[in-house]
Specification:
The chain is of the alpha+beta class. The chain has ten helices and 13 strands. It has a six-stranded mixed sheet with strand order 1-3-2-6-5-4. It is a multi-pass membrane protein.
Length: 455
Amino acid sequence: MKAALRFAGRSLRRRLAFGIGIGMAVLWLAAATVAGLVLRHEIDEVFDSALQEVAQRVLPLAYAEVLARDSDEPQRVPPVGPHREYITYVVRDAAGTVLLQSSDADRSAIPKDLTHGFATTATLRIYTEAAVQGTILVTTAEDLAHRGAAVRKAVLALLWPLAALVPVAVAGVWLAVWLTLRPVLEFSSGLEARGRGNLSAVSIEGLPDEILPLADAVNALIARLRSALEAERGFTANSAHELRTPIAAALAQTQRLVAELADEPRRERARAIEQSLRRLSRLSEKLLQLAKAEGGGLVSEHPAPLGPVLRLVVEELDRQFDCGDRLDVTIPPDGGPALDLDPDAFAVLARNLVENAVRHGDPDGSVRIRLADDRFEVTNGGPAVPADRLSALTRPFERGPTRAAGSGLGLAIAAAICEGAGLTLDLASPVPGGSDGFRATVRFASATGSRRARS
């Protein structure tokens, strides 16, 4: 039973189907064993009764035959026709001399000096009946192998249905368990789908009473988690949003102050303040993006091609950083894969990856941007990132070995979007096949299916 459960794995349906099926088989075998023992006892009684009845019927016939015979030679009763004699008999006198025997009787196998009643040898079951004051004894015998064969055939008749019963029972139990556990499987699927930025309550319709308390506890936990995340994201988004206006006002005043000051040392200090305000403005923008990446709304109801969104992102970055001559962009002519990823979320993802490559890559090297059916890749030159630092780059405010300005949030935002949208972000440094460089790859798990649906 334990071996079967291990074979069935962790699936509750398999465990129940195999467990109940094997349990039924074990019970059937036990019942067949008990039935075999009872059947053996009943068969012994039936065949013993037959031995006794044959002896009692042969006795008067043998007595008449002995009185009428004219020779001392033992007589062998000829068979009526070809047949197998299961019960044989031998008629002896008080001295043990054989007077009469059946056609198949083996006198050497039937012992002499038998008393009235039943006896058993190594191969025979024997019954002896005496008459005429013990002067005539009729001994009937049956081969024990015949009895054993009869019992075996009867037990096999009970066991043969087991070969068909077990598969049918397993299939029936599997179907019954599947129908019974269908609401549980739907609840499990709904709970698993909550991993893509969806923290709504899972439907508990049709769940068994034994599972309802667990489902209610899970929904309550999801509600508390949603409230905590919404509070955290709301605080981050509100803080970043509230900072934008005063930062923009302070930046404008600082730029005016730089233009009005005639004293160069003071103008330099004003320019330093301006740069700090610009960094603070970029940081607030990144915080807004991070709040969106960690929140909902990453999945769209209708698939849309990603190529046009990527072109807009590239054009915007070219205007901001004047890096058009460094960007090597490849987008499929048909617009690229169509995914259920929200276009705004992909724009934030692509912008952060490309901006990260432009800022921290080799200033004289190109940035290769590839959009394919199954992935989106951004590759740049530059020194390799140590392996112990590479995995940490997706954490907020973690930065690699670079002196370029930055907030340390770009890759964290990209990782959050990929996690929330069900995508995979792979970072590699150095670039596979090279000695330096950095590559970020976003893999689309459902790109092929989305393209088929669109076409």
